[in-house]
Amino acid sequence: MEFESNIGGEIYRVHLNSDNSKALVNDSEFEYKLIEQNNGRILLRSGTKVYKIENISVNGRQVSFSLNGSFFEATVKDEQDLLLEKLGFEDQAEASIGKLAAPMPGKILEIMAEEGQSVELGDPLIILEAMKMENELKATADGIINSLHVKQGDNVEKNQILLEIKPSG
Predict the structure, then answer these.
(1) Alpha helix stretches (DSSP H) within the chain
(2) What domains are there in the chain, each with its CATH number?
């Protein structure tokens, strides 16, 4: 398997062999063993060294973790991401940043944002009623509401774009 990781501006190209016992990292080969523990900790053994990996959080391509007590954030691209990048295509996740789509068919009960409003990732924006349940749809990025495509009371289909956010930064 191929990966590329950006940690603190440094790029690490990683190739893992099929039995997950050897890794090629930026042209240096390492033997390793991963030991998953019940408490969510992963021990990484390479040669005589053991590294504790804890507090792992994954959000799309963003991965945060602590390694022997030091905190790191990484952007990780898998084989598909690397191939699409090589071919000059942006992947579907990048193309959809800032677009809030209906996860299922339903009815718009409430819109809690308006065009021009500043929002942060995770802010509640729309209440969608689906199968007699109210679902709170949240901002997919930090930014400004660029356009609303629905109004209160509208019926929507699965994957219909409800609003667009112009990402900041």
Answers:
(1) 79-87, 92-96
(2) 2-93 (3.30.700.30), 97-167 (2.40.50.100)
Element (H, E) at 113: none
Q: What is the pLDDT along the chain (169 residues), one digit of tens a residue?
A: 899 999 988 999 999 887 878 999 999 999 999 999 988 899 999 999 999 999 988 877 888 999 999 999 999 988 877 877 777 655 444 445 678 888 889 999 999 999 999 998 888 999 999 877 888 888 878 899 999 999 999 999 988 999 998 887 6
Report the alpha-carbon angle 10-91-100, nearest 5. 110
Is there a contact between 127 and 135 (Cβ–Cβ < 8 Å)? Answer: yes
End-to-end CA distance of the chain: 32
> Are the C-beta atoms of residues 164 and 98 closer than 8 Å to each other?
yes
Note the pTM of the prediction, 2 decimals.
Answer: 0.50
Residue 54: HSE in the Cβ half-sphere, 13 Å Cα cutoff:
9
Neighbours of 100 (CB within 10 A): 24
- 3-state secondary structure at position 81: helix
